[in-house]
Design goal:
Elements (H helix, E strand, L loop, with lengths): L47 E2 L2 H15 L3 E8 L6 E8 L30 E6 L5 E7 L23 H12 L4 H12 L9 H11 L7 H15 L4 E4 L7 E4 L1 H10 L2 E4 L12 E7 L5 E8 L5 H14 L7 E4 L3 H10 L4 E4 L1 H11 L1 H6 L3 H10 L4 H14 L6 H8 L40 H28 L9 H9 L2 H13 L5 E7 L2 E7 L7 E7 L4 E4 L3 H5 L4 H9 L39 H19 L3 H23 L8 H13 L10 H67 L1
Parallel strand pairs: 8-11, 11-12
Antiparallel strand pairs: 1-5, 2-3, 3-4, 4-5, 6-7, 7-10, 8-9, 9-10, 13-14, 14-15, 15-16
The protein binds zinc ion (2 copies).
The site of one zinc ion (ZN) has 7 residues, from helix 18.
Protein name: Protein FAR1-RELATED SEQUENCE
Main location: nucleus
Pfam families: FAR1, MULE, SWIM
Length: 763
């Protein structure tokens, strides 16, 4: 007979309602051949069930009704076939929580809540010779209070993500909703939080589980492809995370090379991992010098845990020479964000704005339906505000007007605003070439090649087709840049220079900014030392002010619109200041090599490469400007007090002697032969010129010549400034006239159109 003691099962055997085997069960247990169909029936000894599972479900549904949780506990095996013959189902408060030091080898990761109070209520079922299971013992009374009906859904054994709920969660997850959003839909649909049947944590667990995928029979195909590619190309890189359940990453030699040129900004595109697509394909995308998307490697995401993303990013980084990008754009995803923070601590991370707008469609569907104007205003608030203050004001007023101040999702998006609202991200290079661009996602590299019908078997051929097509487009852009000279619209030497430096695509953007300067006068508002602040306002738009700080010595400028920081192209405001300051050429710090025709070469961009005759530091004007500025500062400080004045005078004397000496030592200066002899004498005779009276006449001569030269320089400079201003005026005049001509021609053509059409019709 079965006489051995009952075996205890461990905690993990509690009703794990998330597992797949539960799919075909429902709460009343009817499908399991439960004989007692009445739902309010109380267990009694002798009650029979078709299976042990049916008994479990019956006891659990009874427990839900009464207000307690259940757990599967001890069992006894049959001696005949070793199958389980007796099972004890207990109240979840049965027994006591194990004490932390109670022989446990490992430390528990989390502090567990004391949930067990030694309750004796239970049910024992035993397998009959007929094959059915019967209740042999039922203890009804509990030693604790029962849970009221409105809280019973929180008990673990009553939480269950049912089949219909699962498919709804799948759909919502595919649409980009997180656990919070999914739960709010489920609560609404079931008419209350206690009708959902599970908690947000269960929902999150289910969602994480459903993200685990396998490639099935396609895995073999992928591995073969990767091996073959590596055999063909020694620089082909691939990595597989533990076997068939981990992620896969690969990058070819072109991707790796491209990263060395354009690796400043990266988009990790996870659009294809949603359930709309069959293959969890995730490419790393950059932007090349023609503003085209360029590939930095691809991944297959079979596991979306944080550790798997960390694995992926680390392998990607290893393939990309270990060089961290300046910025990364990804989907709005908590797990991806923490993996990025882990692997790229110094990189600026931004959430893809269009991904957030898609999320808004789901989260705010009610408001979007009730208020047709809301969406446009929401986009405007995010995309078109130019300062942080303006955005904050706009956001507050938007939420107020549409009564959304309490909306949880909007609140969370506001808290994360520094990671997706453009106005907060303008100080970092993201490779976007326009601030007012409404979408920040790079038009995907694989658009038109991978869609909802792409499966794992055709993925690689589509991948190859896409890379070949992108390569062809780059070749075409390269050809156009070299062979089609852009039409210059001004006589500006800077425009001509830019046309030779930049690729065609970037030049057109630069040209647009340059043309715009005509409508942007720049006025000095603060001229202190070497940094001058200009106010730049568009004619007729006095409320939109931009401030440009211009350093006279270094000729460096920065603008409050931050276009240069964000996109690497000089803005119209800085260019307007350059016009005022007679800066007629681009210097190396104004040009980002990655946007130039030389982006893919190893040359270092300097003034020579920018088509300048010599380094700007050496030019006569620069020397003159710097010296004048220093002298002015010197005088300002020197007149403050008598003692400072005396020191300043002394130092000046000293300085003029040094300058004179330096002039003797400069062979390029048109000094007399005597001077050169003098230099030799000094070097050989170890004498200083101040001690030797014979040198006094030479000294005076030097002074005389110096004064003459300074005078000549000044005159020269005055002429130069005058010439430049005339040139500028001429240029403006010409532009004004050409603009007028354009308008006139347009109007003329417009008026001629009907006539033209008529004549066509007659024919
Ligand atoms: Zn109990
Ligand atoms: Zn600007």
């Amino acid at each position: 007979m079965e006489s051995e003691p009952l075996n205890l099962e461990n905690d993990a055997m509690e009703f794990d309602m998330g597992s797949a085997e539960e799919d075909n069960l429902n709460a009343s247990g009817e499908d399991l051949g439960l004989q007692c169909s009445s739902s309010d029936l109380e267990p009694y000894e002798g009650m029979e069930f078709e299976s042990e599972q049916a008994a479990r479900i019956f006891y659990n549904s009874y427990a839900r009704r009464v207000g307690f949780g259940t757990r599967v506990s001890a069992y006894r095996r049959s001696r005949r076939d070793n199958s389980i013959s007796t099972r004890q189902l207990v109240c979840s408060k049965e027994g006591f929580n194990p004490r932390p030091d109670n022989g446990a080898q490992h430390k528990p990761k989390r502090q567990r809540i004391v949930s067990r109070v030694g309750c004796k209520a239970h049910l024992t079922v035993k397998k009959q010779t007929s094959g059915k299971w019967a209740i042999t013992k039922f203890i009804k009374d509990h030693n604790h209070e029962l849970v009221p009906p409105d809280q019973v859904h929180l008990i673990r054994s009553h939480r269950h993500v049912s089949g219909p709920a699962r498919s709804l969660i799948d759909t919502l997850q595919a649409a980009g909703l997180g656990a919070t959003g999914v739960m709010s839909v489920l609560i609404k649909q079931s008419g209350g939080v206690n009708n959902v049947g599970f908690t947000k944590v269960d929902c999150q667990n289910y969602m994480n589980q459903s993200r685990q995928r396998t490639l099935g029979s396609g895995a073999h195909y992928i591995f073969e492809y990767l091996k073959q590619k590596q055999a063909e190309d020694p620089d082909f890189f691939y990595a597989v995370q533990d076997g068939s359940s981990g992620n896969i990453f690969w990058a070819d030699s072109t991707s790796r090379k491209n990263y060395s040129y354009f690796g400043d900004t990266v988009t990790f595109d996870t659009t294809y991992r949603t359930h709309r697509y069959r293959v969890p394909f995730a490419p790393f995308i950059g932007v090349n010098h023609h503003c085209q998307p360029v590939l930095f490697g691809c991944a297959l995401l079979l596991n979306e845990s944080e550790s798997s993303f960390i694995w992926l990013f680390e392998n990607w980084l290893a393939a990309m020479s270990g060089c961290h990008p300046i910025s990364i754009t990804s989907d709005h995803d908590r797990i991806i964000r923490s993996a990025i923070l882990d692997v790229f601590p110094g990189t600026r991370h931004r959430f893809c704005k269009s991904n957030i707008f898609r999320e808004a469609q789901e989260r705010l569907s009610h408001s979007l339906q009730s208020f047709p104007t809301f969406e446009a205003e929401f986009h405007k608030c995010v995309n078109l505000t130019e300062t942080i203050a303006e955005f904050e004001l706009c956001w507050g007023s938007l939420l107020g007007r549409y009564n959304l101040i309490d909306d949880e999702w909007l609140q969370s998006m506001y808290d994360a605003r520094q990671h997706w609202v453009p106005v907060y991200l303008r100080d970092t290079f993201f490779g976007d070439t326009s601030i007012a661009k409404t979408s920040d996602s790079t038009n995907s590299f694989f658009d038109g090649y991978i869609d909802a019908s792409t499966n794992i078997h055709i993925l690689m051929s589509q991948y190859e087709k896409a890379t070949a097509s992108r390569h062809e487009k780059e070749v075409k852009a390269e050809y156009d840049t070299i062979n089609i000279a852009p039409i210059l619209k001004t006589p500006s030497p800077m425009e001509k220079q830019a046309a030779n430096i930049y690729t065609r695509e970037i030049f057109l953007m630069f040209q647009q900014e340059l043309m715009e300067t005509l409508a942007y006068p720049a006025t000095v508002i603060n001229d202190a030392g070497s940094d001058v602040i200009y106010q730049v306002v568009k004619f007729g738009e006095d409320h939109k002010v931009h401030y440009v700080q211009y350093n006279v010595v270094e000729k460096k400028a920065s603008c409050s619109c931050q276009l240069f920081d964000f996109s690497g192209i000089l803005c119209r405001h800085i260019l307007a200041v350059f016009r005022v300051k007679n800066v007629l050429r681009l210097l190396s710090h104004n040009v980002l090599k990655r946007w130039t025709r030389k982006a893919k070469s190893d040359v270092v961009l300097d003034e020579d490469k920018l088509g300048l005759p010599s380094s700007h530091n050496d030019s006569f004007t620069d020397r003159f400007e710097k010296l004048s500025l220093e002298t002015t500062n010197y005088v300002k400080e020197g007149v403050d007090s008598k003692s400072v004045y005396l020191v300043a005078m002394d130092a000046l004397c000293e300085a003029s002697k040094k300058v004179a000496a330096a002039m003797c030592g400069t062979p390029a200066q048109p000094l007399s032969q005597d001077m050169n002899k003098e230099k030799e004498f000094n070097l050989n005779g170890n004498q200083t010129d101040c001690d030797d009276p014979s040198l006094l006449s030479q000294d005076e001569k030097i002074k005389e010549l110096t004064t003459a030269m300074v005078y000549a320089t000044e005159t020269c400079e005055a002429y130069r400034a005058k010439l430049l201003s005339i040139l500028r005026e001429m240029e403006e005049q010409r532009l004004r006239i050409s603009l007028k001509v354009l308008i006139y021609v347009e109007e003329y053509l417009y008026r001629q159109q009907p006539v033209f059409c008529k004549s066509l019709c007659k024919e």
